[in-house]
Each structure stands twice: as C-alpha cells, then as structure tokens.
UniProtKB/TrEMBL annotation:
GO terms for molecular function: transferase activity. Gene3D superfamilies: Crotonobetainyl-coa:carnitine coa-transferase, domain 1, formyl-coa transferase, domain 3. Keywords: Transferase. The keyword Flavoprotein does not apply. This is CoA transferase. It holds the Pfam family CoA_transf_3. It comes from the Bacteria. InterPro entries: CoA-transferase_III_domain (IPR050483), CoA-Trfase_fam_III (IPR003673), CoA-Trfase_III_dom3_sf (IPR044855), CoA-Trfase_III_dom_1_sf (IPR023606). The keyword Transferase applies. Transmembrane segments: none annotated.
Amino acid sequence: MAEPIKGPLDGLRVIDLTRVLSGPFCTMILGDLGADVIKVEPPKGDPVRAQGTMTEGHSGYFAGFNRNKRSVVLDLYSDEGKAVLRRLLADADVLVENFRPGTLDKLGLGAAALKELNPRLIVASINGYGSTGPYVDRPAFDFIAQAMSGFMGVNGEADGPPMRAAAPVSDLVAGIYAALGILASVIGRDKTGQGQTVEVAMVNGLLSLMAYLSSEYFATDKVPARTGNDHPLVYPYGLFTCSDGQIAVANSHDQILTRFLETLDLGWIMTDPRYDTNPKRMAAREELRDLINGRMAGKSQAHWLGILNAAGVPCGVVQDLAQVFSDPQINAQEMVLKAPWQDGPSQSVLGFPVKLGATPCTIHRPVPQLGGGTHDVLSEFGFSRSEIDDLVARNIAGLG
C-alpha cells in the first residue's frame, strides 16, 4: 500500500494560540499544507466552538477553520500552564497569536523572552491596527477593520450608505498574509538560522487590497465615489438585464468591449463621437446602460452567457450559495470536502483553493474535540504520563 503523500510543510511544528477567525484561518492554511498545528485552547475552548448552527453538538463554523489541527487545553492564567507552554515553544518552529498587542508580554513571553527561549522560533501576530501608532490598544473586529480601512467607504450604491462585505474579508486577508509571512520567514531561517517576528494588522491587510481605488486617490487627491456594481474606472462594466435576470459582464479594456458590443450588434458605439473614449462612456453611463439593457432584455441569461463566453467576453450570473455548491465547475474543482470530527460526524467544509501537483493539500487530521490531543501532544514534547495526569487533575491541562 502506498504511503500517504505528505504536505510540503511536513515536519513544521506550529503552536497556535489563536481564536475566532483570522488566526485559525492562517493556521488552517499551514495545516492544509502539512504542518503539525497544535491549537492551544483555554478550558472553555475557542469561542467559535459554540457559534453558528450546531450539528449533533458540533459547530460548522468551527469545523470550517480548524481541520488539520490537534487541540491542547492549557490554563495560561496559571504559572504551571505558562510553564507548559514554554516547553512547547522551546521545541516549536512557529508561534501564531491574535491577541491584542502586549498580551504575550503579560504572559512573560515578550519578544526578548521568546528569542532567549528559542532563537529559531518564528512569532506571528495578527491584530487590528499593528503594534505601533495611536490605535494600538483599540480592540478590532472585521466590521471595524472594514470601516477604518476605507473599504466600506467605497462600497455601496452612489446614493446609498457605505456597505460592508458580507464575508469577513479583513480577517481572511490577514490570515492569508500571516501565512505568507510565516512561509517567507521559514525560508529566511534556512539561510540565517534565526527566527523573526511577523506582524499583520487587519486594517493594513484590507487597505493593501484597495488597488486602483488608492491609485486614483494618490493621482487626483479625490475620494473615489461609490459606484455600486459599476466599475469605478471603465464602462460598460457591471450587471446587465436579460429577459430572466441579470448577468455580470467585465469589459476590462477596449478589445473585450468591442467584442461585447459587436455581439450585441452595438459595435457602432465604439466609433460614435459621443462614446468613442472611455471618459465619454463613463459620463454617458445611463444612456449606454439603457441601450445595452434594451438589447439584452429580449433574450435569456443562458443565451447571452453562451454567445458572450464564446466570443471571449468574461461574464457570469450572480449565484447564491445553493447554486454555487451545485455548480459543476465548483464540483470539478473539489471545492466542497467532508471533514470528520475527532469525536463525531463529518461536516461539509470548503476545499483547497491552492492546488499543488506533487504534494497536494489533504485533510489528514480531523477537526479536534476540545483537548482531544492534549495527552498525545504533551507526550511528544517529553512530558511523562504522571506529569500529564497531574496537570489534568489540577485543571491546568484538559482532556476532551
């Protein structure tokens, strides 16, 4: 029988002190890539264990971000719990935390202490605003980061209020950036033998995605207006109305736009002096919208999707999640998987967006029950059975 394929991060030990979303997303990425992720939880567990819809007592929200991990329960408010954590960190490669800045110092695990304990340790911190500046001590969640980064300010209809993204984008972006920083630091450590700190702020991460919106502001000193589903820089680009609904069309440059308009028998627009440049088309949005909708309204979504995609025009329908998860393309890409719980049934979770050819991501560990890995993990780090039993008996460590 063939040996299971090991991920590219096999052998990398990650101590995960994170909870809720940004940090667990980061460590899940590392775990999916093969790292040994040890999730250190307080006696009551990560708060997300009790959030969202429960299936047979298990949170789908928690399962969605905590596969490929082992759970260890430690009371870090006790001196003994902190001592156990130090033993783990002394033999680990990476520490990931998403406390407010200064929390590690209060645990006696500030930068200097960690460097002395393990010079090779990579310490990754995810927080709201960073560890410098006047907002260091402010709490932050995704909604606040969306507001403070300018992200909400550019989303919404032109005559409507700012709008948040439904998905927790600042948490997710921060988690991805933290994983990227950790991987870069692992490569750097191979060259220097030394670990380093990695810091990602949710506000910074989301701000970094402002793309051409920030470029336009730098160039003009003008705050970008909200444009709803229209593109802020080019037109026609957005949602257009067919006989049975809307389709999204992305005419990102003149070559694609020409194909689009010619398919609609509106190719004359590109040479009409009223519309022959993008600035003119931007100024005439509503006129062009009426022309395009008037032409498309006579045929179905399926009709236009077929001929526009065949013409090389990027387009698609706005799908709800039921449609997405029954879409044959999504299924072909295996973007829905089953993750087993350590002590229960399997639950559907999102699949792996990164497809590696030789060492693919796999679900190689179940979603852990609270404390379900405490005994095995502490044994691997050199704790004796009697030491573990004593820690459990005194509620310093816990078993699920």
